[in-house]
Design brief:
heterodimer, A: 498 residues, alpha+beta, 5-stranded mixed beta sheet, 4-stranded antiparallel beta sheet, 17 helices, globular, B: 250 residues, alpha/beta, 3-stranded antiparallel beta sheet, 10 strands, 30% helix, 15% strand
Amino acid sequence: MNYIDIKNNQCIPLASIPVLEYEIFLEHNTSLLKESQNHCVNYYGFHSDGKIKLICCIANDNDGSIYVSSSHINMNETLLSFTHHHFAFEKFEREMHENFGIKYLNHTWLKPVRFSFDRTNKENTISNYPFYKIDSEELHEVGVGPIHAGVIEPGHFRFICNGEQILHLEIQLGFQHRGIENLFLENKKLLQRVTLAENISGDTVAGHTTAFVNLWESLCNFSADKDLQFTRTLALELERIAIHTGDLSALCTDIAYQLGSVVFGRLRTPVINYFQIWCGNRLAKGLIRPGRNNFPFSKKLNDKLYKLFDEFERDFIEMCEESFSLSTVLARFERTGAVTHQQASSIGTVGMSAKMSAIVRDIRSTHPHDFYSSLNHQPVIKNHGDVYSRVQIREEEIKQSIGYIKKLLKNIPEENKERKNLSSPSLNSFAISLVEGWRGEICHCAVTDEKGELVHYKIKDPSFHNWLALALAVRNNEISDFPVVNKSFNLSYCGHDL
Amino acid sequence: MLDNFKILIHQGKQFIPDITTAEVPGIFRGRPVISNEKVDDDKLVDLCPTNSIAKNPVSIDLGKCTFCGECAFAFPDKIKFTKDYKLSTNFRDGLIVKEGEEKNIILNPDLIRKEISKYFSGSLKLRQVSAGGDNSCELELNACSNVNFDMGRFGIEFVASPRHADGIVITGPISENMAEPLQICYDATPEPKIIILAGTDAISGGVFADSPALNRIFLTQYKIDLYIPGNPIHPLTFINGVLELIRKRK
């Protein structure tokens, strides 16, 4: 067998992952991606016995399987690239080239990804990044960043324009790199690790923390009680509502629609304040913990949430109806920043950036965890891949999430007061956890050694795939439309840079 | 047009009338109070994910604390977090809360540079630099300007260029890759300029304090005018801290 077939949140002995010759490894994984139901959720390498161990995880969206295979390669070996067969591997291979100096024969362009502090080639610095250039007297370059003009994280965007029209955009990231994956190994206390997970991306606290705790519990053979699963599912859906609402506000700001901007902006407040009431932090930091729960869900919290949604829904629906019937709003959203189905699937987009282009890819329905199997989730799918598709996905997902939460509230699980303590992680094991955050698919993978200590921790934020979708979306658009296109994706810098 | 009026009426008044006395809803982990209760000090110190707790006497350094509240869960008689959100100060030691001492965190007026209250008391324009920030403090800084907190009413605003700014607000632990852009931004800001550190990550590095991917040399070179702790900072903490800085006089 070329692979081992596992489920989301399953822990397996590391030795059970088949080790393939590189040629077979390449052939096997790239041929899997020829089927549209398969996509690559993670592909990475780490040092092992003086060599580099590559692990590739391909998810099958039809039957909820994850096919895991591996290969052991020598340092400084020159390899044929996966990218040559499927472009979705492009970023993964660039990352491995940057971290381990792996050379690829037929990769498109092995540019640095995040200028990690332990990169192989220290001569590649963030200030000498090799931007794509076009030699022409008619064209001009526009560079913005790294410091953003607003209160947003840093990244550098280099446009090549013909007058107002964007021909090409290259996005340089890495400014936020804090060495998080390394800190997961350095910090030995569980509380330190879960705090780290909360700080991967501050707008996806519930998403990344759920991925971490689910992974950790599976490493420890701990099956989460219903009340823990309830907390995580509820937090994920509340986070989705809060951030989507804030994004609708920001989108209205970028098209100078003041009423939408302030009303959606203020509608976010009661939702994040609900986290404050529940756990004492507006972004849900401190709420989710492995194997325990500091903030049991009470009857009082339940009543407050019903009241919140009564008021929220009324104002939200009113504001959506008004905004999306205005020709001036629609004229800025429709057909702006479009990505085709073919483009979106070739680069392996996930989350909203996939669903906008008719790709049915949503962990909540394909690889459900916690309470999602009982919710029978049907993803919101749009076809045009433009700003308006992303706006509609947000609007409909907010309504859908409110529906899910109301369903969850009908049957609140009792707090388990006699919970067992978490045991130590399994020895020599591999575990994977997938979570559908509001932005899309989050993947965390861990490997332990013979003492049960973490030897490798790998995080993949949905933005890792989706930044390229933004670069493709703005082609042939006016540069003045860039802010609204960028905001409609709302991708993460720190989640990407790690 | 009529629909717009209807929406406006439905929204009602959203702003917080008095930002200095507003109460945070629900639970909030603000300024901690440490009692004189005898507990296993070593266990307490060991518990903290960011080493912000020290013993003899037991103290919490809010510049390192991520406000996870785990110490208060484990030792409820020893440590309690109050709803006091006024956590800002202008000297680093002012962030250390000791056992048995229950007092507010304040700015030392003697340490506020004269030109700050002279030039900026009615208007302050700030340039924000996210230097490895996880976007949570950035979200809350944006919230400061929304219709609820409405920081603009005090003349405090974020601007797009350092040339238009009176100072910089740093969030995040300052990654190696942001060290140079931060320096360039600071150099481009006209004198007299102020530096505000917003959030635990900026003040001490927070959970990232020991990461080799950071470069915090910038902070050793200049005087910091205001420390605002929190993970993330609450908008009320930020606005009150900045107001204190520009309005307090010797």
